Every structure is written in structure tokens, then in C-alpha cells.
Amino acid sequence: MLNSLSGRFLILTTVFVMLAEVLIFVPSIARFREDYLLARLERAQIASLALLADDMISPELEAELLDNAGVFNVVLRRDEVRQLVLSSPMPGEISASYDLRDASAWQLITDAVEDLVTVENRTIRVIGNPFRDAGQLIEVTMDTIGLRMAMIDYGVRILLLSAVISIITAFLLFLAVRVLLVKPIKRVVGHMQAYAAAPEDAHRIINPSAKVKELREAEQALQSLQTQLTQALKQKERLAQLGGAVARVSHDLRNILTSAQLFTDRIEMSEDPAVKRMAPKLVNSITRAVSLCEGTLAFGRAEEPAPRLALFNLASLTGEVLEAERLAIGEAEISLSEDVPASMMLRGDPEQIYRVLSNLIRNARQAIAATGQPGEINVAAHVEDSSWLITVADTGPGLPPKAREHLFQPFQGGVRKGGSGLGLAIAVELVRGHGGTLSLKNSDGSGTCFEIRLPMGDVGQIK
């Protein structure tokens, strides 16, 4: 009970209401004391009227009047004359005087607290204005024991009433909190627990229904989170199934290409000049296709093979990539150019760098071809202080926002319609395996530019 939200709210509400009542109690007891003293002044004034009406009253009647008024003597000032109207023997010296005519609220409070905490009986003088303008001043002397007892009795009743009000208020707030907050929160928690048991089940996604604004916003945020998570889990499942299928296809395709590679070895022995000229290119293409299948299988295992680093001529490798792409351009008006120094040597795995450049150039070619407009693709490279920098730029339409958002994520960053998005994911992983970075430098209506940065390290150690 005490560990629950509603239980703690009940206790805090009771404490705060009691604290508020205590803050109200002090001025209230001061007001009660003032009313008590004014009542004594009024009784004393009424008693003095009997003497003013008849100068000859018996001592017994005078004592009875003073006893009924609850005072020891009465001084009345009339017509600028101060007169002791009624008197009786004083029990002791006057210990304090209180003037109620111009007393401030703070003064009344401090005087009330003093009378309440002082246990011994005292004799005090009280001064006030006569009622109904029956003079200029009235003054009485009285003891404090009756005043203090009356104040204690009043205070106990006020505190008891405050306690009852606090309990009732706290109970009503307890019920309100349970209905408005605790039950909706428990409902949200129940939805979360049910969803956690089977997050793939879309029927378990919460449907916001809270009437409290903050709770409804929390339910809407939870609904959005659960929807995204369910979709992600379904996509992961589909990707896992697709990955298995791709791995099986790549495995079989690799076997077929391996057989084709054996046949090309025999074609190389042909005496036909055209065959001799085309055979090496065919062998290289089939070799790269086999390597691609093996790489796809490695990607399905969530890993790429470590690069086999060696020094190679980047201009020669770039020329091979561009020549292969020219065959695929067909009748499209797309020009390919390179700006790579002829003597530039680069440290890396030539097969993997070939795949990176091929993926980037192929994506650029397909993007330009999809527009039906002429375009240009340029590969440039230069050496910086501690790295090689390669850029692949095109004059295509630029990447759409959705493609930029998931650019290097497999099966999500596809640039063209129907694309898998696997090419860029493989490319960035291959570059990362070289210790480098692949990044999108810019992409707008004037074209797209990718930047490959590969660290040099100690080139002299590469054999």
C-alpha cells in the first residue's frame, strides 16, 4: 500500500492538508483570543451600566456583576473623565497590558502564542473602545487561566476538524488518483507487458484511449515505438529469410561460375585473334563474379573477408572498371572519364577496390539512365599528406531524401526503384576493412559525389 503511487499520494495529501490547517490555525487562534477579550470588554461595559443607572448597589451585586463579566475591575472613561466603575480585590500584580484598539495582525498573533504557551496564571490589563460609543475607553483587569483554557479547547476542536477534513480530502483525492492516473498507468504497464511477451504481434500494440493529456501523449509515444519495433522485427525476419535465400543462390551460382571458369581456360588456348583479345576480359569478369558470390556469402555471415593488401596501379584498375561499364551503357548518352595520375600506386586489395568503384559507378550510371538525359561520370584521385583520396562524381539527378537517410544500410539504402541497397552497404564495409571511410560528399540537383579516403600507413612494408 505504502509503496504504491496511490498510497503515497494519500499520505502526502494528508500531510499537506494538515500543514495547511496548521498555517491557518495560528491566525485563527489569534482571532479567537481577540473575540474572547472583546466579549469580556462588552460584558464589563454592560455590568458598569447597572452602576451608572443606580449609584447605590450592594457589594454582593457588584461582585456578581464582575464575576459574570469574568473581570476583576472595570475602568470607564466618559466625558474625558477616567472612572473606576467596578472593582474587586486583585489576586496579584498586572503582568501585561494589551490594547485592542490599534493592534496589528502580527501583534495579535504573537500575543495569542504567548498566552497559549504560558502555563502559569497571570493578571493582565485589556484596553478597548466601548461599544456603541458609550465613552472614550474601557479598561478591565482579568486573569489568563480562563482565556488559555478557552483557547486550548478551541484549538483542539479546530485540529480535530482539520484532521477529519484532511482524511476526507485525502480519501477523495485517493479515489480520484486511482481513477484518473493509477488505473490508466496500470493499463499502459499491462499493454507493455503483453507486448513484450510477443512483440511481433501487431494486435498487441497499444491503442491510445487515456483522457488525461499527458497520459495520452505517453500512450501515443508508446504506440509509435511499438509500431516501429514491430515493423523492424518483421523486416529483420524478412531480411534473415532473404539472406538465407541469397546465400543459397550465391552458393549455387558460384559453382556454376567455377565451371564456366574452367571452360574459359580452354578458350584462352584458341588461335583466333578476336578470341585471344576477348578471353582475358572474359576470364577477369568470371573471376570477379565468383569473387562477388563469395563476398555475398561472407556478407550473409555478417562479415567480409579481410583485404589482401598490396600495391597496385589505381589508374589501370579504374580503366578496367570504366571499360566494363562502357559495355553496359549501350545507347545511353553517358560519358565516362577519369582523372587519376598514371603513376599513382595505392595500397589495398585490388579486387575489393574494384568492387567499390564498380558499385559506385554502376549506381551513378543507373541513376542517369533512369532520367533519359545525357550525363557524365568522373573518377578522380590524388594523394594527400597521409591518405589517398578517390572521388566518384556524376551529373545525375541527385539522391532522394529517403535514400540519403538509410544510404549505407543493406536492403534500405537503395537509390533506384527495385534496387536492393546492398551495393553501397558492401562498399562501405569493404572500405572500412581498409581502415578508410566512404562518405557522401554532396548530392543535389546538379549531381552526386562520393568520397573514398584510404590511409597510407607504412607503404614500404607492402610487398
UniProtKB/TrEMBL annotation:
<keyword id="KW-0812">Transmembrane</keyword>
<dbReference type="InterPro" id="IPR005467">
    <property type="entry name" value="His_kinase_dom"/>
</dbReference>
<keyword id="KW-0067">ATP-binding</keyword>
<keyword id="KW-0175">Coiled coil</keyword>
<keyword id="KW-1133">Transmembrane helix</keyword>
<feature type="domain" description="Histidine kinase">
    <location>
        <begin position="248"/>
        <end position="458"/>
    </location>
</feature>
<keyword id="KW-0808">Transferase</keyword>
<feature type="coiled-coil region">
    <location>
        <begin position="215"/>
        <end position="242"/>
    </location>
</feature>
<dbReference type="InterPro" id="IPR036097">
    <property type="entry name" value="HisK_dim/P_sf"/>
</dbReference>
<dbReference type="InterPro" id="IPR003594">
    <property type="entry name" value="HATPase_dom"/>
</dbReference>
<keyword id="KW-0418">Kinase</keyword>
<feature type="transmembrane region" description="Helical">
    <location>
        <begin position="158"/>
        <end position="181"/>
    </location>
</feature>
<dbReference type="InterPro" id="IPR004358">
    <property type="entry name" value="Sig_transdc_His_kin-like_C"/>
</dbReference>
<feature type="transmembrane region" description="Helical">
    <location>
        <begin position="6"/>
        <end position="30"/>
    </location>
</feature>
<dbReference type="InterPro" id="IPR036890">
    <property type="entry name" value="HATPase_C_sf"/>
</dbReference>
<keyword id="KW-0902">Two-component regulatory system</keyword>
<dbReference type="Pfam" id="PF02518">
    <property type="entry name" value="HATPase_c"/>
</dbReference>
<dbReference type="GO" id="GO:0016301">
    <property type="term" value="F:kinase activity"/>
</dbReference>
<keyword id="KW-0597">Phosphoprotein</keyword>
<keyword id="KW-0472">Membrane</keyword>
<dbReference type="Pfam" id="PF00512">
    <property type="entry name" value="HisKA"/>
</dbReference>
<dbReference type="InterPro" id="IPR003661">
    <property type="entry name" value="HisK_dim/P_dom"/>
</dbReference>
<keyword id="KW-0547">Nucleotide-binding</keyword>
<protein>
    <recommendedName>
        <fullName>histidine kinase</fullName>
        <ecNumber>2.7.13.3</ecNumber>
    </recommendedName>
</protein>
